[in-house]
Structure formats: structure tokens, C-alpha cells
Amino acid sequence: MYIRFVVGGDQEHHKQLTGIVSESRLLRDHGALLAYEEELVEQAYHWLNSNLPCPPFHSGGWSKDAVCWFKDSALEAIKQMRVLTNLLRQHDIPVRILHSKNPGKILYEDHFQVVVEEWKAI
């Protein structure tokens, strides 16, 4: 099973939704977070940047629609994403957690995640 955390409502098509890392960065950069919330974001980013391989988006020749999905076995990474999810929800930003056994054509894979070209329906 694969998991993706996205910003958007239930009525929006999954291909139009953005990731929660970008959205939490926007909140931080616009000064919308309290000091302790900024610290939570920074801790989550530090863990993710220190422990997750960075997929080769720029050199992979992939379309702009290529997105990351976590493997359900990536428990600590998912825990960090839940920290960001909770923060966004506290700021009234809708977050959806998508689950799929087969989210798309796999372009890249590591121990924690896959990058896929998503199917039209998941």
C-alpha cells in the first residue's frame, strides 16, 4: 500500500492537489506560524531531509505530473508527515490522505517512497 498527503478538498481531483510540505513552507514563509509551530515544521523538515533520499526529479526526464507516494512501511516518514498534516489542519487548510495499492507507473523507487506518473483514477 502507498500513502500520499495532499492539500485539497474531497471534491477536487487528486491530480490537482499539492503536497503538504510545500503548503507548510508557504505558511512559514508568510509568517503565519507561531514560534512553536515553526519549530515543529523545522524538525519535520530536518528529519525528512536527513533521512529520505531525494528522487532525481530534475534529471529523471519525468513529466511535471510525477509525484511521490510513501510506502506504508516508511513509518517514521509518515509520522513526520502527520505532524505537518495536523499543523495545516489547525490553520484550516484541508488535508487529504490518499491510499492506493497501485498509484501509477513507477518511475523511481527507494526504501521509503516511489515516484509515479499517477493514473487518472486511483
Fold and architecture overview:
The protein has 122 residues and is α+β, with helices and mostly antiparallel strands. Helices cover 35% and strands 26% of the residues. Strands 1, 2, 3, 4, 5 and 6 form a six-stranded antiparallel β-sheet that branches. α1 (20-29) packs across α3 and α2 runs antiparallel to α3 (75-90). The longest helix is centred in the middle third of the chain and has 17 residues, at 35-51. It starts with a strand and ends with a strand. The mean pLDDT is 90.
Binned strand content:
25-35%
Helix content: 25-40%
Task: Estimate the global geometry from the Cα principal axes.
Answer: globular
Rg over CA atoms, rounded to whole Å, is 14 Å
Give a quick account of the main beta sheet: strands, pairing sense, barrel closure: 6 strands, antiparallel
- Please, what is the average pLDDT? 90
Order of helices and strands: EEHHEHEEE
- What structural class do the secondary elements suggest? alpha+beta
Oligomer: single chain
Could you write a compact summary of the structure shown?
With 122 residues, the protein is α+β, with helices and mostly antiparallel strands. It has helices at 20-29, 35-51, 75-90, and strands spanning 2-7, 18-19, 66-71, 95-100, 104-109, 113-118. β5 and β6 (113-118) form a beta hairpin.
